[in-house]
Design brief:
alpha+beta; D-amino Acid Aminotransferase, Chain A, domain 1; OB fold (Dihydrolipoamide Acetyltransferase, E2P); 4 domains; 12 helices; 29% strand; elongated
């Protein structure tokens, strides 16, 4: 995706702002067995930047990344000339600054709004010395631009926060704003040197307009002796007999014409009405640019943008003394059911008093579908830096990622609405809660059918679970998963750690499997598991494990709700979609919270095991 030039910095709450890196734009394709790492014009960077290539191979996820390769000078500033000389300096600090994510673990992310792509990228990317996440700031473009000027970088990039990724297209959703006026130009020839100068006198520059190569000036400054000789040597290999321009420009010195293949970058004071650079100074050769990319800007190409905040189907509500901005309320989230984003928010507000006790103080994995259930969704764990200050979070160390993750937890209506507005259709809380995350509040038995099982078979299995529980005087609570399965919860009251709870769940599931060997399995491996049996999953017991919360909507056709049931309601013919966004509230009001006891004092596991042994 390409950026248009823009005149000046601006503030806008719907935009984010990044550093404009002075380097090589590069795509890293980690979606295949052997990574690809290449420039905009398809030149491979794998061997040229071996340290970055090595670190790309060690990323944990299969991804396609977009970013910029940057060389830093001794003052820590990006320096494009150093980047070009990187092969001669093995000690040069080179960094791949990654600012976008186009594909993740089998799914394209290009249709997801930019701000959500970046949140996903921040969580998925493993940073190293040579690979870094390119951060941004929101809204405050003018102040950011001023800071970038003090840092003496090239400028900044402004990006609309809800923009989708459009390949090879220069849109007004991405803007480049520079301190110094620079442009790319095509080298089309060189003049003879004067006096003691070696190599050449000036480079003849051109650009394309309407597919015709047009003269755009010449530059004779910006070269040292070595650069003059190196460039002259390259240009000698491109010499042609006739001018590449249809209209041959006048020059003061004889010209040697070259194939219009080399692209350079120049800085200049202004461009005249007929497209000629005034006072151009050579900066560098751009190996990463194709001549066809260098086009003269016409008046029609000037970018226009309103620096006032837009209001497209937005509203602001006050909840729990917090202001919550709700956007795009008419966006369709469930296309086949014609359910909009606004309806999702209304549903959760209507059942807030029932669901919030089951979310309270529990870190959340946010299952987000910002463009609806038929587009790519993603799980978000880390809260990120752009959340409102009043949102509650807790830091938890992740051994697998070797870093602290800042989890959001949802204790009030305001947070519920804020998360729904981000595209959270369902909520996935931990089994444990603050302040003690090492001891679960409940045990979960997950009945997970294969595609060949009927829901009636799932019901039969759930009833068998209940028989086992009744035999050891335990009252379990069951709910539809909202998808194809059933979840059965047993209160544990934080009396036991995860391993103890998991072992107990395993014992219970063994009992169920012995009673129903024809339709159930305990085989964990998908490859070894019989694809006609219900998996009795007892492994939902470790720190950070989540399942969809009770009363949560699910991102499935029919807009089903994960609904608690009384045991005598489990009868043949029942379907998960019987409980959905349209009838859930009436049912919940009628039945009350059937899951209330899940948050109770918990069972005595030792007594239960003794009863189980006696029954055996």
């Amino acid at each position: 995706m390409l950026a248009k030039s823009f005149e000046k910095a601006f503030n806008n709450e719907n935009w984010i702002f990044e550093i404009k890196w002075d380097g090589y734009r590069a795509i890293a394709d980690l979606s295949r067995a052997q990574p690809l790492f290449y420039s905009r014009n398809g030149i491979s960077f794998l061997l040229k930047f071996e340290k970055i290539s090595h670190d790309l191979k060690n990323q944990q996820h299969t991804m396609i990344l977009d970013g910029e390769i940057v060389a830093y000078d001794e003052n820590g500033r990006p320096n494009f000339q150093l980047l070009q000389q990187s092969g001669d300096n093995p000690n040069l600090l080179l960094v791949y600054q990654v600012f976008d994510l186009l594909w993740l673990n089998g799914h394209s992310t290009k249709e997801i709004p930019l701000i959500h792509r970046k949140e996903l990228l921040k969580e998925a990317l493993t940073e190293t010395e040579s690979i870094k996440y390119c951060d941004h700031i929101r809204e405050q473009g003018i102040e950011f631009f001023s800071q970038m000027k003090k840092m003496k970088v090239e400028g900044m990039i402004a990006k609309k926060s809800d923009s989708v990724y459009i390949e090879n297209h220069r849109t007004s959703d991405w803007l480049k704003i520079k301190f110094m006026k620079t442009e790319e130009a095509i080298i089309c020839g060189f003049t003879e040197p004067r006096g003691s100068r070696e190599g050449f006198g000036a480079l003849i520059l051109g650009k394309y307009i309407n597919e015709k190569l047009i003269y755009s000036g010449h530059t004779g400054t910006g070269f040292n002796k070595d650069l003059l000789n190196q460039l002259h040597e390259r240009l000698n290999k491109l010499i042609i007999k006739t001018s590449p321009f249809s209209l041959i420009p006048r020059t003061n010195m004889p010209v040697t014409w070259t194939k219009p293949e080399l692209v350079c970058e120049v800085k200049y004071s202004e461009i005249t009405k007929n497209g000629i650079f005034r006072h151009p100074v050579f900066i560098a050769i751009r190996e990463d640019k194709d001549p066809e990319d260098v086009n003269l800007k016409s008046k029609e190409m000037k970018t226009k943008i309103s620096t006032k905040a837009t209001t497209t189907n937005e509203k602001v509500i006050m909840l729990n003394s917090h202001t919550v901005k709700l956007t795009h309320q008419d966006k369709i989230y469930f296309p086949k059911d014609n359910i909009m984003k606004g309806s999702i928010i209304e549903y959760y507000q209507s059942i807030a008093s029932y669901i919030l006790p089951h979310l309270k103080n529990r870190p959340l994995s946010l299952n987000r579908f910002p463009n609806g259930i038929e587009k790519s969704g993603f799980y978000q764990k880390d809260a990120g830096e752009n959340i409102p200050k009043w949102i509650k979070t807790t830091e938890v160390y992740s051994e697998s990622n070797d870093k602290y993750i800042d989890y959001i937890y949802c204790n009030d209506k305001a947070t519920l609405a804020y998360l729904n507005n981000l595209g959270c259709i369902d909520f996935n809380p931990w089994n444990s809660s603050l302040p003690d995350l090492e001891h679960p509040d409940f045990l979960v038995l997950d009945l997970d059918p294969s595609k060949k099982n009927t829901f009636d078979e799932v019901i039969e299995t759930a009833l068998q679970v209940n028989e086992v529980l009744n035999s050891i005087k335990i009252k379990g609570c069951c709910k539809t998963s909202g998808s194809t399965g059933i979840h059965i919860y047993i209160p544990m009251g934080k009396k036991y750690d995860f391993d103890q709870v998991k072992d107990f769940a395993h014992i219970l599931m063994k009992q169920v499997h012995e009673k129903l060997p024809q339709i159930t399995t305990l085989e964990r491996s998908l490859q070894k598991r019989d694809n006609k049996k219900i998996y009795l999953d007892y492994l939902q017991h470790r720190t950070g494990q989540t399942l969809a919360s009770v009363y949560s909507l699910r991102p499935k056709e029919g807009v089903p709700v994960s609904m608690p049931l009384e045991w005598d309601e489990l009868k043949k013919g029942l379907q998960p979609t019987d409980f959905n966004i349209h009838n859930a509230l009436d049912r919940i009001k009628e039945k009350g919270d059937l899951f209330k006891s899940v948050l109770g004092k918990g069972i005595d596991m030792i007594k239960a095991l003794e009863l189980l042994q006696n029954n055996g």
